[in-house]
Amino acid sequence: MLNVREYHRVSSIEEALELLRKQPAASLVSGGTALIGESPENIETVIDISALPLDQIALDREHNLLTLGANVTHQMLVEGAGDLPLTPMFEILCTTAHAMSGLNIRNRATLGGALATADSASPLVTALLACDAEVSVWTASASTDKPRTLPLAGFLSYRAQILAEGALITHIRLPLADPAMRFAYDRVARTPRDYPIVCAVARCAMKDGIVGSVRIALGGVAATPIRLPALELGLEKKPLLDFLDRELLSAISALNPPSDWLGSAEYRREMAGVLARRAILRAAQAAQG
Ligand SMILES: Cc1cc2nc3c(=O)[nH]c(=O)nc-3n(C[C@H](O)[C@H](O)[C@H](O)COP(=O)(O)OP(=O)(O)OC[C@H]3O[C@@H](n4cnc5c(N)ncnc54)[C@H](O)[C@@H]3O)c2cc1C
Predict the structure, then answer these.
(1) pTM to 2 decimals?
(2) CA neighbor of 5 nearest in space, from 44, 47, 48, 41
(3) Candidates 101, 111, 158, 199: which one to mutate for ligand 1, based on the most atoms within 8 Å of Cβ?
(4) pLDDT digits (tens, 9 = 90+) for 44-78
(5) In DSSP terms, which residues pair with 69 in a beta bridge?
(6) For residue 139, how many C-alpha atoms fall within 13 Å in the half-sphere facing its CB?
(7) Residue 195 carries which DSSP code?
(8) Which ligand 1 atom is nearest residue 116's CA?
(9) Which segments of the chain does DSSP mark as H helices, in order?
(10) Does ligand 1 lie within 6 Å of residue 219's CB atom?
């Protein structure tokens, strides 16, 4: 970050927003693990948000939500939330946070950073999509004294515009899933410990062979992780095994993945089908008990 001229370590959200209002192009820095890799000439003003009290993992029983502060590190998710019960939803966050990177990076990298960068194959962002996450964002230009709360899928679609206005992600909220629901994660990578090329997270409940509350999210097949709403709808309240292959074929053939040195578009599309199928079958099997 050779061009940094101003460094501000803020201690309140108001202070961060005030600075963003004056300089919307300023770079927020939380864990710093992604920012240090950016071109130094792009970064002149840094607002360090790591001291903000946004590192809590809490149950909001009144609204039936799990609330995660934006400064919660990936490793905090891996280690679990103190005395909070290790529910299937928390377990999938734990598994996918672990899959993000090695321990040194996980100790620094935050949830806010993962959402702001929204890497195409991010296992954690893929899991958050399957958990119906919502994102609370303060924008410097807004005149209200409240953050906007957006479904994660909507946030990801407009992420570039929202962040370009000067925005601070403060919380991620997850509706506490019905305890009968189960989750599963699968991925392909170059090595067993490597970051995925393509990954899938599925969630569902299952009763008498009928699947419900289906969520299927994929990483590595678009610019950011995505959900497959048509597939989810096509399976909802149906006998899973009778509909899975047909609905999956139609959903996967509509994908238009990127090609790069890790995998061609054809390979990614093929893997998306295999992984989504495995993940939903594993989640359904676990939910059936
Ligand atoms: C060696 C190495 C390996 C890595 N491997 C991976 C990997 O495998 N997969 C992967 O996805 N990433 C990887 N990363 C990138 C990085 O670790 C992740 O993207 C991480 O989630 C970023 O979190 P952070 O807190 O460090 O973000 P920072 O670096 O602090 O910030 C990253 C971006 O997010 C913005 N930002 C951060 N917090 C907020 C907030 N609360 N509100 C609004 N904007 C915010 C910043 O302004 C900045 O633009 C790697 C990085 C390194 C150095």
Answers:
(1) 0.95
(2) 44
(3) 101
(4) 899 999 999 999 999 888 888 999 999 999 999 99
(5) 171
(6) 17
(7) P
(8) 34
(9) 13-22, 74-79, 88-98, 103-108, 111-117, 123-130, 152-164, 229-235, 240-253, 265-288
(10) no
